[in-house]
């Protein structure tokens, strides 16, 4: 009778250790930062500009690349084709490689002496040391989260519904827009949130492609290197609070949409 309780208690203890492992460094940083330091740092134009740059570039990268990533995820969920497993593995490469190496790879692809860099320069768009480069770097490391989440969502949509609509004369585009996309929307939205959040936290790839203008992770690194922990900590606290607020807001919108859907509104 007591075995299950001991078993669950042991697992609960392990879970508590994991939660403590995650929270302890963050709480230590928060407690070591005074409200005065936070308010003073928040007033700095450099900090505010870097936070705004981080937020909008990550959001832009997410929305821009979602245009291609979501249809691609649908293709992966519905169609079989040669080397499909290889393609699925390629999608996960940005997750497993060191992000500094990803930055080097991106830099070799978008620098001014490459065909893409020259095409961009021809229209006044330079990737290196610009917001465009930041967007590319953020998208590169975070797009697997959206593709994989959207693919899982499309896999959960019953194919019989799509086939029934097609047999009644609906076009593939209409079936995708009115059946597949709405039914997989919860997973897609989770993927969008994860991609946005991952893009915001990126450092390794961005710092290689665009040290300036500085996104907040790069600014934190620079302040730590130049002035030490005392000056890097308040920026870190502010950025964590903002990212958590954005993450909770997006998750709340996702939950609200789910509740409305379940209520049939």
Structural class from helices and strands? mainly alpha
Percentage of residues in strands: under 5%
Termini, distance in Å? 47 Å
* Helix-strand string: HHHHHHHHHHHHHH
Average pLDDT, all residues? 90
Q: What is the helical fraction, as a range of percent?
A: over 70%
Inertia-based shape: globular
Descriptive account of the structure:
The chain has about 260 residues and is mainly α. The protein contains 14 helices and no strands. The termini are far apart.
Topology record:
Elements: H1 2-31, H2 35-42, H3 45-78, H4 84-91, H5 93-96, H6 99-110, H7 115-122, H8 131-155, H9 159-167, H10 172-183, H11 185-201, H12 204-209, H13 216-227, H14 229-263
Helix pairs in contact: 2-14, 3-8, 3-11, 6-8, 8-11, 9-10, 11-14, 13-14
Name its key features.
single chain, 265 residues, mainly alpha, 14 helices, 83% helix, globular
How is this structure best summarized?
The protein is 83% helix and 0% strand. The chain is mostly helical.
């Amino acid at each position: 009778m007591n075995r299950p309780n001991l078993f669950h208690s042991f697992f609960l203890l392990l879970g508590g250790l994991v939660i403590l492992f995650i929270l302890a460094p963050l709480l230590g940083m928060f407690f070591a930062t005074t409200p005065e330091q936070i308010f003073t740092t928040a007033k700095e134009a450099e900090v505010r500009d870097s936070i705004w740059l981080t937020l909008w570039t990550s959001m832009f990268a997410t929305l821009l690349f979602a245009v291609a990533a979501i249809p691609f995820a649908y293709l992966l969920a519905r169609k079989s084709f040669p080397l499909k497993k290889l393609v699925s593995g390629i999608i996960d490469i940005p997750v497993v490689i060191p992000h500094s190496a990803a930055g080097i790879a991106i830099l070799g692809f978008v620098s001014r002496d490459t065909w893409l860099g020259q095409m961009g320069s021809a229209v006044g768009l330079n990737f290196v040391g610009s917001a465009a480069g930041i967007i590319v770097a953020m998208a590169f490391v975070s797009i697997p989260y959206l593709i994989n989440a959207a693919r899982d969502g499309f896999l959960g949509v019953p194919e019989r519904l799509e086939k029934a609509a097609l047999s009644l004369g609906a076009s593939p585009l209409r079936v995708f827009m009115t059946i597949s996309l709405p039914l997989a929307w919860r997973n897609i939205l989770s993927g969008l949130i994860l991609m946005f959040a991952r893009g915001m936290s990126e450092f390794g790839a961005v710092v290689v492609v665009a040290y300036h203008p500085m996104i907040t992770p790069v600014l934190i690194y620079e302040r730590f290197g130049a002035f030490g922990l005392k000056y890097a900590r308040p920026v870190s606290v502010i950025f964590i609070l903002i990212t958590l607020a954005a993450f909770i807001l997006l998750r709340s919108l996702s939950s609200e949409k789910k509740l409305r859907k379940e209520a049939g509104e």
